[in-house]
Amino acid sequence: MMEELLDGLMRHKKQSVTPVELEGMISSAAFDGEEFAKAVVRLEDEGYLTPVKNQGRQLRAPYPANKYRLNRGKINRRFHQELHRARLEMSSTLISLDAYFKLDPAVFVEEWPMIQKVDDYLTTRGLPDDEVTAEERSVTLVNDEKWITERGGKKLLERIGVWDKLKIIPVSDPLMFAVNPNRLSPVDGQLHLIVENKTTFQALIQVIAASAFTTIIFGGGWRAVASLEQLERQVPLSGEKTVLYFGDLDHEGLAIWHQLYLSYDACPALPFYEACLKKAPNKGKENQKQRPKALDAFKTFLAESDQSTLQEMLNEGRYVPQEALTTKELQRIGLMTPWQDMTLT
C-alpha cells in the first residue's frame, strides 16, 4: 500500500492532498481502511506529507490529518532513488533515463511501463536492420500502432535516446518543393532554399532552372522544422549540402529560422533579408512574442547597420513580410546572387 501511495504522490499535480484523494491512489482490491490510515500517518511520520494544521485531524486512531501538503523535495529524492533502481532493472544498455532526473516524477511514472516494453524489445531482438513505418514499429514495440504517432511514443523514444536507432521512417509531412533539373550532378553539390510563404515560392520556381538552387522548398511556417528531416529521403543526392532559409522579418519568422539553424545548420538567405530591410516596415506585430535568442543569433549574420535597423523595427512592433519583395526583385536576387559562396562562416 505504501508503494501505491508513493507512486500516487509522484503523479499528483497539486501541492496539497486530502485523504479522499489518497484513497483514490489505492486499488480497490488492496484497500483496507485501517491499514490505509496507518499508511497515511506513516507517510506523515517519514516526512512525505505535512499536515495542514487549520484543517484538523480525523477522530479515529491513528488520527490522520484532513489535509496535507506534499513535501516535493522528499518525494523527488525518493524518485531519484527509484530511477537508479530502474536503471539496474533494465537489460538494454541503449536506454538512458538521464532526462527524467530533470522532469516531474509523474512523467516517469506514466512512461515507465512503455520504457519496460522498449527494453524488452531491444533485449530480445536488438536494433532493427530495416526501416519501417512508425505504425509498424509501434506494433512491434508496444502492440499499439498509434503509440508513436498519436500517444507520445516519439517523444518518449527521443527522451530515452533510442529514436534515431530504431530506423523509423519519419512521421512528419512530406516536403513540398520544386527541383532544378540542371543541378542534380554530385559535382554541383546541393543547395536547398526554403521559403516561408507560397507567394515567394511561386515567384522563385518560375526561374529555378536558371538558378543555382537544387530545390526550392515551400516551408509553410513551422511545418518546415519537422518536414526537413525528409529531405535526404526525398532528394537522395550525393555531394555537399547547404540549406538556406528566407522567411518573414518578424519574431516568429526569426524563431523558425533559428530552429532550422539549430537542427539543420540552415543559413539565412541574406540577400533576400537585406533587400527586405530596405523596405518600409508594416505595423501590426506589437503583441507578437519576442524571441531574443533567435534575434541575437540572426543579428550575427548581419552588417552592423542592418542589425540596428532590425532591432529598432522589432522594438517598434513592426515587421517586413516576404511579400514586400516583388516577383521581379525576388527573381533578380535569386538569379544574380553567387549562392555557392554562402556558407555558415
What is the helix content?
40-55%
Biggest beta-sheet profile? 5 strands, mixed
- Could you give the distance between the termini? 61 Å
Radius of gyration: 28 Å
Strand arrangement across the biggest beta sheet: 4-6-5-7-8
Work out the strand percent.
5-15%
Shape: elongated
Based on secondary structure, the structural category is alpha/beta
Number of helices: 16
Q: Output the helix-strand order.
A: HEHHEEHHHHHEEHEHHEHEHHHH
User: How confident overall, as mean pLDDT?
Assistant: 91
How many structural domains? 3
Beta strand count: 8
Unreliably modeled segments: none
Pfam family, one: JetD_C
Protein name: Wadjet protein JetD C-terminal domain-containing protein
InterPro entries: JetD_C
Topology:
Blueprint: H1 2-11, E1 16-17, H2 19-23, H3 33-45, E2 49-51, E3 68-70, H4 72-89, H5 105-125, H6 134-142, H7 147-150, H8 153-159, E4 176-179, E5 190-195, H9 198-205, E6 215-218, H10 223-227, H11 231-234, E7 241-246, H12 251-264, E8 267-268, H13 270-276, H14 292-299, H15 304-315, H16 327-336
Parallel strand pairs: 5-6, 5-7, 7-8
Antiparallel strand pairs: 1-3, 2-3, 4-6
Helix pairs in contact: 1-5, 12-14
